[in-house]
Design a protein that fits this description.
Tetracycline Repressor, domain 2, 282 residues, 0% strand, 77% helix, mainly alpha
Length: 282
């Protein structure tokens, strides 16, 4: 059980709260109501499989840096609680789960599944080459609502593309904030990020702009789909969460960027999802 717990900690399974609400939101909007139970089941498995694959690969690929990073000394792979071979096996099993789940959804899903895997694999390498790494992470998460919409409907439209953009820019903006803590380490290791490229103050300004754009995209989704006004109240609550999170961050003080800070980010997806459900039911 300790080994299982270590593996779950290694892939941060509890952080699925960031992606699952947006995936469910895409599914709910696709049918303008409550989706079929089997569709939700396979969407959930697809999300868990994709996310577990991404985190396992990320931790494996970044292991040499994590062993040197003072913030990551307690990570299971760093301490040796889990072994690289075990993590690789978990990544393969999770990837198989993702493809099996995709096969049970709309036929187009299994054909698009390899494309969805690309940003999951590319992201861990991006910091070695480009400060746009945060945007690749955003792309990986943007697949959640877009993929769930396609899984139900089998097609795309402008509204769901904007929804994916809103989600991707949202998570990228927070990744920029976390990257601000690692500027010294990243520079020493020759790694790239927006804080390294534009400085901490510049990166924080970009993060605020990204989150403002994200909220605008969420609002446009409601407008294009003609959602009930209660949906926009959920977007408003999400905006308040973002404002509060940014108020806690100072260019020379990241002491409040804690695990609690990280988990509060999930309130954005939770609020928007809950009020999306209320909106379509009304």
């Amino acid at each position: 059980m300790n080994k299982v717990k270590a593996h779950l900690e290694n892939i941060a399974l509890s952080h699925s709260v960031f992606a699952l609400p947006f995936a469910y939101m895409g599914a709910v909007l696709a049918v303008r109501g409550v989706p079929n139970g089997w569709d939700l089941f396979w969407i959930t498995l697809a999300m868990v499989g994709a996310r577990s694959t991404a985190l396992a690969l990320n931790n494996l690929i970044d292991l040499k840096y994590d062993r040197l990073h003072p913030r990551f000394t307690n990570r299971p792979l760093v301490t040796g609680t889990v072994k690289p071979g075990e993590v690789l096996l978990l990544a393969v099993a999770s990837l198989i789960l993702f493809f099996v789940a995709a096969y049970h959804l709309q036929p187009v899903c299994i054909r698009l599944a390899p494309l969805a895997v690309i940003p999951l694999v590319v992201y861990p390498y991006m910091k070695r080459f480009s400060w746009t790494c945060h945007l690749v992470l955003g792309l990986a998460l943007a697949i959640a609502p877009v993929g769930a919409w396609i899984a139900i409907s089998g097609y795309l439209n402008l509204a769901v593309i904007l929804l994916g953009l809103a989600v991707g820019i949202w998570i990228a903006g927070f990744d920029v904030i976390y990257g601000c803590q690692d500027v010294t380490f990243d520079k020493k290791q020759g790694l790239h990020s927006m804080p390294v490229r534009f400085g901490i103050d510049g990166a924080l300004r970009l993060s605020r702009l990204m989150h403002s754009f994200s909220i605008l995209c969420f609002a446009l989704v409601g407008y294009l789909l003609g959602l009930h006004f209660i949906y926009f109240f959920g977007v408003f609550l999400a905006a308040l969460v973002l404002l509060y999170q940014h108020s806690l961050v100072k260019s020379k003080d990241f002491s409040r960027v804690t695990q609690a800070y990280f988990m509060r980010n999930g309130l954005v997806g939770t609020f928007v999802f809950i009020f999306t459900v209320i909106s379509v039911l009304l």
